[in-house]
Amino acid sequence: MENARKTEMATSVHLQYAFSFPDGSRQGRICPDAWQGIGAAVSFLGNPKGIGTPVSLYAFQGAPVYNLSDRFSIYYEWNFGASFGWRPCDGKTAYSNLIVGSGVNAYINLGAGLRYRLSDALSLMAGIDLTHYSNGNTSYPNPGVNMAGLRVGIVHTFVNSRGSKPYGRDVSDIPVASESNRRHLPEFDLTLYGSLRKRVYRGGETPVLLNGRYAVAGLDFAPMWRVSRNFRVGASADFQWDESTDLKRHHVSGDSSDDIRFIRPPFFSQVCVGLSGRAELVMPIFSVNVGIGYNVIGPVETRASYQLANLKVRLTDALFLNVGYQLLNFQKQNNLMLGLGYTFR
Predict the structure, then answer these.
(1) pLDDT, tens digit, for every residue of 280-328?
(2) Which of 134, 229, 251, 257 is 20 to 30 Å from the Cα of 65, by its Cα?
(3) Distance CA 194, CA 179 (A)
(4) Is the peptide bond before 166 cis (omega within 30 degrees of 0)?
(5) Contact, 255 vs 285, CB < 8 A?
(6) CA dihedral sign, ordered 44, 135, 236, 183
């Protein structure tokens, strides 16, 4: 295959619609200045024949971190969704790539910057952001696409019910009922998830990409304490079954993807148990939960540190949708975590 064309610069154009909750509502008391909504983006990566021109659809949320004045604030914003229109690697043509293995990939973006309010209706935003595209190890190759860049934009506010300081309210001014009591009582999060993944078998001299996809299922149980209105910390017992683990001890014959054979390992030989520390940013509708842990029980290949990042979407006060991803040793892509959770109080 000829050398693929390099991509050194990319440009994205976004269109977003956001809303904020009224100050007196329960969600508004969590963070009165937060905004959340849906967005769409087109990304031009400089190599349409090899990579494509992906279109992303996503949910997003942002909030001021610090108000410098009535008009000037420092803000953050995250985007999470799916991107379509990629050209997957075929390993043959001159324009093929070795970074995208599927036509649909997850889209993750985190940005921070300055927001300046020109008037009650118009604001300017400028800052930096980081973007990651990945298929969650469901297809190969999957090294992911990572970009760092600058962002600029203009915001038009259709309705402003907060007077002359739409982004100048101090959240500490708004009380939350029984908050002081809730800080001393744990909340227990129970999360069930599953996914499919690809697996590279490394039992011989040459790594082999196995045919098909393998199932993953897990359960996390996490006591969490509220440090403040918008922040929780805790620990979690994490159980995960991976159909593609412990294959080396059950290899029968073959050394290529077409003729390799295994005996199905026993169920409990493919289960690992880990303990992790968790931290969670609690916002209206969404919560972002991250964790670092270590697998203390399980196959040898799973005895490693693992890292978790989860987006929780509150369907009710207790029930939430979970979308997450797991790494091993801060570098090895492991699996998606798609499921449901429930908070017991």
Answers:
(1) 999 999 999 999 999 999 999 999 999 999 999 999 999 999 999 999 9
(2) 134
(3) 34
(4) no
(5) no
(6) positive
